[in-house]
């Protein structure tokens, strides 16, 4: 039976800083593992190693090199100066670009360890699968998420506007080059400031991670508590309950876990990803915007599963979406102002909203299961 009070108690246990690769992430892993074992289930563990180069260094390097190339074009010190700088940038960037195509295999930087925790309720006569996903780790950052988004946008827009001015100044309207040079100071300056702010946005281990993603952990645990009873098992679907590590470090957990589930048939699998649920609820589907619900009582938007797909940023679900898995993402955009900050505390999550969400998902899954092969 789904219990909001149990969700609340579990939530309070997981709300503490737990940066990937640290002892605190391992602590969250051990708590989750112990709770699963209390259900008389045997969770499986996939250990893996990773480095922080891809999420914490590579991105900053790309933005910095991009600014420098824009600045060199703006200065217009001649073709030789430009091509020397371009050659140096390409010599740096091209090898790194190919290395980061599979970031889980990168060996640059200090090696850290993490683990995925999962329960697979499989039966031989079933070939359809439902995956419940969440991630165990949290992270803090110097800048709130809205400012990070702002500086990313400013960097892109200033780059585009700066390139347009450079083309006008150096090629199309050379007679006005002086005035265009003066105007160009604005996008170059904005791009520089944005680059500096992106580079200064360091990762720390200060966020308690209540919405991101203790809310997801306790939701998957509550669903597992329900389906741990054989009488609630589905007729046509195997069930997977997946707690990934190092999601906040380049989605390293799901990238490694994919090796375990890559054999699953995409058209016979549905995923439910729970990440950053607060006091409201958004469901990401194939629509242009997330569908927002103040409560979970009318979540009928995702019943027609064949037409719905995850739309989200870098996350476990987004990675699986690129691998052609289909499903739904649950979060709360209104809680993003707390994400990755010291203010992502337990009071930002409504456990009884999670209770309603669990009940509705169970109801929808039962309907899907009952309608299969009809």
Protein traits:
Aminopeptidase, elongated, 374 residues, two-stranded antiparallel sheet, single chain
Structure explained in plain terms:
The chain has helices spanning 4-14, 23-38, 53-75, 79-99, 145-172, 177-200, 210-227, 252-261, 316-322, 351-371; strands spanning 44-50, 112-121, 128-135, 140-141, 203-204, 237-244, 269-274, 281-284, 291-293, 326-331. The longest helix has 28 residues, at 145-172. Helix 1 packs across helix 7 and helix 3 packs antiparallel against helix 6. The protein has 374 residues and is of the alpha/beta class. It is elongated. It has an 8-stranded mixed β-sheet, sandwiched between helices. A two-stranded antiparallel ribbon has the order 4-5.
Quote the CATH topology of the largest domain: Aminopeptidase
Largest sheet: 8 strands, mixed
Strand-residue fraction? 5-15%
CATH homologous superfamily (4th level) name of the largest domain: Zn peptidases
First CA to last CA: what distance?
28 Å
Q: Helical percent range?
A: 40-55%
> What class, by secondary structure content?
alpha/beta
Quote the average pLDDT: 89
What is the count of distinct domains?
Answer: 2
Q: Uncertain segments of ≥5 residues (pLDDT<50)?
A: 286-291, 294-298, 301-312
Q: Oligomeric state of the chains?
A: single chain
Task: Let me know the number of strands.
Answer: 10
Number of helices: 10
């Amino acid at each position: 039976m789904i219990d909001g009070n149990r969700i609340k108690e579990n939530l309070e246990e997981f709300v503490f800083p737990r940066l990937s690769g640290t002892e605190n992430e391992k602590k969250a892993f051990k708590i989750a593992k112990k709770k699963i074992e209390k259900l008389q289930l045997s969770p499986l563990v996939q250990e893996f190693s990773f480095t922080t180069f891809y999420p914490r260094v590579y991105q900053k390097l790309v933005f910095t090199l991009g600014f420098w190339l824009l600045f060199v074009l703006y200065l217009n010190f001649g073709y030789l100066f430009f091509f020397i700088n371009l050659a140096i940038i390409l010599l740096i960037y091209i090898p790194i670009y190919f290395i980061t195509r599979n970031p889980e295999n990168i060996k640059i930087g200090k090696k850290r360890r993490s683990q995925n925790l999962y329960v697979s309720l499989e039966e031989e006569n079933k070939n359809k699968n439902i995956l419940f996903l969440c991630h165990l780790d949290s992270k803090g950052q110097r800048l709130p998420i809205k400012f990070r988004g702002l500086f990313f946008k400013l960097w892109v827009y200033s780059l585009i506007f700066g390139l347009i001015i450079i083309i006008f100044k150096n090629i199309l309207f050379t007679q006005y080059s002086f005035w265009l040079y003066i105007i160009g100071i604005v996008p170059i300056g904005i791009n520089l400031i944005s680059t500096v702010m992106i580079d200064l946005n360091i990762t720390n281990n200060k966020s308690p991670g209540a919405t991101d993603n203790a809310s997801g952990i306790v939701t998957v645990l509550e669903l597992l508590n329900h389906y741990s009873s054989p009488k609630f098992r589905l007729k046509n679907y195997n069930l997977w309950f997946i707690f990934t590590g190092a999601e906040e470090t380049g989605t390293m957990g799901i990238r490694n876990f994919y090796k375990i589930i890559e054999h699953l048939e995409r058209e016979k699998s549905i995923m439910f990803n729970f990440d950053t649920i607060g006091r409201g609820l958004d469901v990401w589907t194939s629509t242009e915007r997330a569908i927002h619900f103040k409560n979970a009582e009318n979540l009928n938007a995702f019943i027609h599963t064949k037409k719905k797909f995850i739309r989200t940023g870098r996350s476990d679900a987004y990675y699986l979406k690129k691998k052609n898995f289909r499903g739904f993402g649950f979060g709360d955009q209104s809680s993003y102002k707390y994400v990755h900050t010291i203010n992502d505390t337990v009071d930002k999550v409504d456990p009884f909203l999670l209770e309603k969400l669990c009940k509705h998902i169970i109801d929808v899954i039962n309907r899907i299961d009952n309608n299969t092969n009809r």
